[in-house]
Amino acid sequence: MMEAVLLDKDLMEFGQYNIANIPSLYAALDSDNIVVNAVSHIIKRADEGDSSNAIYKEVNDYLKHNI
After folding, report:
1. Whole-angstrom Cα distance, residue 57 to residue 47?
2. CA pair distance 5, 59, nearest whole angstrom
3. pLDDT tens track for 10-32
4. What is the enclosing helix (H) or strand (E) of 17?
């Protein structure tokens, strides 16, 4: 799932990342790239069954502190 999202051409251009440098979800979670990190957290939390509101709050807080 994460790879499918991160392969989006527009997202790659916006985030300025190379998908070849992201071998796994765990690598993405540790990424310094804000786009890669945010996407990986959304996917991880959704896979864990967390609510949309909880995911939104976490990612929103992450982006506020890192942009």
Report:
1. 16
2. 16
3. 999 999 999 999 999 999 999 99
4. none
Picking from 38, 40, 56, 29, the residue whose alpha carbon sits closest to that of residue 2 is 40
Written as six digits, the tokens of 26 are: 């765990």
* Full-model pTM: 0.86
How many C-alpha atoms does 51 have within 13 Å on its Cβ side?
Answer: 3
Structure tokens at 41: 């957290």
Tokens of 43: 């996917």
CA dihedral 8, 14, 16, 21 (to 10 degrees): -30
Cα–Cα dist 13/65, whole Å:
22
Q: Which two tokens stand for residue 4?
A: 């499918």
